[in-house]
Design a protein that fits this description.
The structure holds 2 protein chains of 2 kinds. By secondary structure, chain A is mostly beta strands. Chain A has a domain at 193-293: Thrombin, subunit H, CATH 2.40.10.480. Helix content of chain A is 10%, strand content 44%. Chain A is built from 2 helices and 27 strands. Chain A has helices spanning 2-33, 43-48; strands at residues 56-65, 72-77, 84-90, 101-102, 105-108, 114-118, 123-128, 142-146, 151-156, 162-167, 171-176, 182-187, 193-198, 206-211, 216-220, 226-230, 237-242, 248-253, 258-262, 267-272, 281-286, 292-297, 302-306, 311-316, 323-328, 335-339, 344-353. In chain A, the strands form 7 sheets. Chain A has a 4-stranded antiparallel beta sheet with strand order 1-27-26-25, with no helix packed on it. A 4-stranded antiparallel beta sheet of chain A has the order 5-6-7-8, with no helix packed on it. In chain A, a hairpin with a 5-residue loop joins β11 and β12 (182-187). The longest helix of chain A has 32 residues, at 2-33. Chain A is globular and about 65 Å long. Chain B has a 4-stranded antiparallel beta sheet. In chain B, α5 (120-133) crosses α7 (157-173), α16 crosses α17 (327-340) and α17 packs across α20. The longest helix of chain B has 21 residues, at 390-410. The two termini of chain B are 58 Å apart. Classes of the chains: A mainly beta, B mainly alpha. Chains A and B meet through α1, α2, β1, β16 and β27 of A and α2, α4, α9, α10 and α11 of B. Chain A: It comes from Gorilla gorilla gorilla. Chain A: One of its GO terms (biological process) is signal transduction. Chain A: Keywords: Repeat, Transducer, WD repeat. Chain A: This is Guanine nucleotide-binding protein subunit beta-5.
Chain lengths: 362, 467
């Protein structure tokens, strides 16, 4: 036993120094990821001129959902393109001393027959949906995931039977819904993980997560290894979303920028920011073609970005408190934003002015 | 009544980068040369220097950031809500009026990021001062807070009253103008830090987050940890990177190809259900529909994944494979997907089922995998897990993708589907004319849209006009 221990220590020291060599090269590699380092022009500007400008959009709110009596924290679309699940801060009116429970994450199951949600309770629970008004949904609740800190994000994989979660304890995890078994855990973030998104790839094996350590990390679901990491943001990453082709992903952060990272180039290729945008982006999503990036901000606005040109297409007002969540519908006909002003707004494009001599916005 | 724990002092500036940015804006607004025009404001009989009007603030912001007035007003309103600019008259409501209403810049002493978190003792003193000045007639919520604080800090209440009286006495020594200004500044600070019920609490943050500095993540530096690190660095250093210019070309072609299929960019026919309240689009594009639209059939040609993800597309592809006697490939792939994403308890059963049907020698629907992969797979089946068929699945997937799929796209079957597929006509025009940007026409100099018929130039057909 003693020799085993010694052997362990030896290996540990040599492993540690080997890792340190790799680690010493890491900062330089990470700097190369930055789009604007060494005075390089941001890659997206190289192609921006070749792209036809978009018209001027008019997006109108078509539905305002006021059912929540409290801050809306998260929402997700059902695959039927019409239904939405949303979660909010739940306050217990009777017990004044009890803290409010924030349900920070929710997701619709692919079949549309169940939803998952969780938050400050450190758990992710699955509720089968029933349209029978007499049935008590809470009674059928199943606790699936258990973390040691708050649940920040959750998502079903391709079926109702697996859930991927991200937590304030710095880890992500893959769970089997039926048994609650932990199938795989993902360690690597140095601080709370705030968001995740599954890759729309052919082999369906990876996902990206963003955290308070300013890093966005791409993981292999099968092995639990981190495959790629990106660290160019200057503050917490609140939201990550894959570009529809799966070759890139966008991130929204408290540093008031959204960035596009390309997986094959292994670097940041665009920064979506403006001097007048001061507040953090809480939630981002692409339109179906990936040409538009919608981002909800903590200053109550939604900015729409032209992904290819790197410029802002339009700014949308309407919410009276910070926009906490934003998702484009599965068929891309509309997008929904949820806010701390207790409402959800579904917006669609009403019309688009043709391209003309437009004042360059941004 | 903050929800969630407040961050400890000192971390605020790091945690709330927007405060720093607002402060920078406000400082540049006060620049003597480039800043907002300052003037002296007359209030009753006093003259207050260094005041600005709401409209000047909005104009300055619009010019500085090259944004619309609406956006400048919004940005200005946010600055006022956070107490960086306060109104001189009616300091009780932190709103920005884009007119002659006078405002002033908050002194850095009272900036949100300087005095954080607001101390209860200070609030007690402030309320006590107000109480004394108003001879006991405080506003409702302030009265509640005052009573509550009195109970809470009862032991130090003499100190509170003494401080309050002292501050009031010192204030009397000042000039009327200064007294007014300081009162406004203080009131603004407390409106931000202790908002009245109903007013938005701009300082409310979500549940406390751990940052890098105060990380709650425990990383046990075991041998495993270092092995993973080494593996990661090795991969990172050895990774072949594609030139970003090539990647960007890929985005250009992807966006260009998908643009017409993106309802938020190009609209959709017959109409967007959310805009027109007409379900027709959803009915026509239901997951399993007998007659898929032309756009939908076109999408099957974009990538193999798109074809498989569409139930109608997949069904047609299955038919096609059936004609080529290779339908078992798709079935095998589907069974593997079921295994990958199925319940953990089902894994052994599913693996057995797949083996019986597709892999066993003489199986009913034997799939043709290369011998090496087959050997490895059969070996792995001794200890079944959900990824045990990954290699075989990938092999079959690539076979279909490289071989069957291109032939499907060239086949009469697909061409027939494409020809048959219809393009829905646009619905009756309503108040807002729904425009598509004609693909090959030059940019129109007109600012207002004139109703344009969807002509053949759009490539959308239906040139007979609108129903």
């Amino acid at each position: 036993m003693a020799t085993e221990g010694l052997h362990e220590n030896e290996t540990l020291a040599s492993l540690k120094s080997e890792a340190e060599v790799g680690g010493s090269l890491e900062p330089r590699r990470l700097r190369l990821q930055r789009g604007t380092d060494y005075g390089l022009v941001l890659p997206v500007h190289q192609v921006a001129e070749r792209v036809e400008a978009l018209g001027q959009f008019v997006m109108k709110t078509r539905r305002t959902l006021k059912g929540h009596g409290n801050k809306v924290l998260c929402m997700d679309w059902c695959k039927d393109k019409r239904r939405i699940v949303s979660s909010s801060q739940v306050c217990h009116e009777h017990a004044v001393t009890m803290p409010c429970t924030w349900v920070m994450a929710c997701a619709y199951a692919p079949s549309g027959c169940a939803i998952a949600c969780g938050g400050l309770d450190n758990k992710c629970s699955v509720y089968p949906l029933t349209f029978d008004k007499n049935e008590n949904m809470a009674a059928k609740k199943k606790s699936v995931a258990m973390h040691t800190n708050y649940l920040s994000a959750c998502s079903f994989t391709n079926s109702d039977m697996q859930i991927l979660t991200a937590s304030g304890d710095g880890t992500c995890a893959l769970w089997d819904v039926e048994s609650g078994q932990l199938l795989q855990s993902f360690h690597g973030h140095g601080a709370d993980v705030l968001c995740l998104d599954l890759a729309p790839s052919e082999t369906g094996n990876t996902f990206v997560s963003g955290g308070c350590d300013k890093k966005a990390m791409v993981w292999d679901m099968r092995s639990g290894q981190c495959v790629q990491a990106f660290e160019t943001h200057e503050s917490d990453i609140n939201s990550v979303r894959y570009y529809p082709s799966g070759d890139a992903f966008a991130s929204g952060s408290d540093d008031a920028t959204c960035r596009l990272y390309d997986l094959r180039a292994d670097r940041e290729v665009a920064i979506y920011s403006k001097e007048s945008i001061i507040f953090g982006a809480s939630s981002v999503d692409f339109s179906l073609s990936g040409r538009l990036l919608f981002a909800g901000y903590n200053d109550y606005t939604i900015n729409v970005w032209d992904v290819l040109k790197g410029s802002r297409v339009s700014i949308l007002f309407g919410h009276e408190n910070r926009v906490s969540t934003l998702r484009v519908s599965p068929d891309g006909t509309a997008f929904c934003s949820g806010s701390w002003d207790h409402t959800l707004r579904v917006r669609g494009m009403v019309f688009c002015f043709p391209v003309c001599e437009r004042r360059e916005d941004g | 009544m903050a929800a969630g724990p407040a961050p400890p002092p000192g971390r605020l500036r790091a945690q709330m980068p927007h405060l720093r940015k607002m402060e920078r804006v406000v400082v540049s607004m006060q620049d003597p040369d480039q800043g907002v025009k300052m003037r002296s404001q007359r209030l009753l009989v006093t003259v207050i220097p260094h005041a600005v009007t709401g409209s000047d603030v909005v104009q300055w912001l619009a010019q500085k950031f090259c944004v619309s007035e609406e956006e400048a007003l919004h940005l200005g309103a946010v600055l006022v809500q956070h107490g960086y600019i306060y109104p001189l008259r009616d300091p009780r409501s932190l709103m920005l009026r884009p007119d002659e209403t006078p405002y002033r810049f908050q002194t850095p002493y009272f900036w949100t990021s300087t005095l954080w978190p607001a101390a209860e003792l200070d609030y007690a003193i402030y309320l006590a001062k107000k109480n004394i000045r108003k001879r006991g007639t405080l506003v409702d919520y302030e009265k509640d807070c005052y009573d509550r604080l009195h109970k809470k800090i009862n032991h130090a209440w003499d100190l509170v009253l003494m401080q309050a009286r002292e501050q009031l006495r010192a204030a009397k020594q000042r000039r009327k103008g200064d007294r007014l200004v300081i009162a406004c500044q203080e009131q603004t600070y407390w409106l931000v830090n202790r908002p009245p019920p109903g007013a938005p609490n701009v300082l409310e943050q979500g549940p406390g987050r751990g940052s890098c500095a105060a990380s709650r993540v425990l990383m046990t530096k075991s041998a495993d940890f270092y092995k993973r690190e080494i593996e990661y660095f090795r991969k990172a250093l050895g990774r072949t990177r594609v030139k970003s210019s090539i990647c960007l070309e890929a985005y250009l072609s992807f966006c260009g190809q998908r643009g017409p299929h993106d309802p938020l960019v190009s609209g959709c026919l017959p109409s967007n259900p959310w805009i027109s309240d007409d379900d027709a689009y959803w009915v026509m594009n239901a997951p399993t529909v007998a007659a898929p639209t032309k756009l939908r059939v076109e999408r099957w040609g974009f990538s193999f994944r798109e074809l498989l993800e569409d139930p109608v597309g997949r069904a047609h592809f299955m038919d096609f494979l059936g004609k080529e006697f290779s339908g078992e490939n798709l079935s095998f792939w589907e069974a593997c997907e079921e295994l990958r994403y199925g319940a953990q308890a089902q894994v052994p059963t599913l693996v057995d089922a797949v083996y019986e049907q597709f892999l066993a020698p003489g199986a009913a629907r034997w799939v043709n995998i290369d011998s090496r992969t087959m050997e490895q797979t059969l070996e792995g089946l001794h200890q079944p897990h959900r990824y045990v068929l990954d290699d075989a699945q990938l092999h079959i997937y690539m076979l279909m993708k490289k071989d069957s799929y291109p032939r499907f796209l060239k086949s009469d079957m697909y061409k027939g589907l494409l020809a048959e597929a219809g393009i829905p006509l646009g619905t009756k025009r309503r108040v807002f004319p729904f425009m598509w940007r004609p693909r090959h026409s030059s940019p129109s100099p007109a600012l207002l849209p004139t109703p344009v018929e969807p002509t053949a130039a759009c490539g959308l057909g239906g040139g007979d006009g609108v129903a």
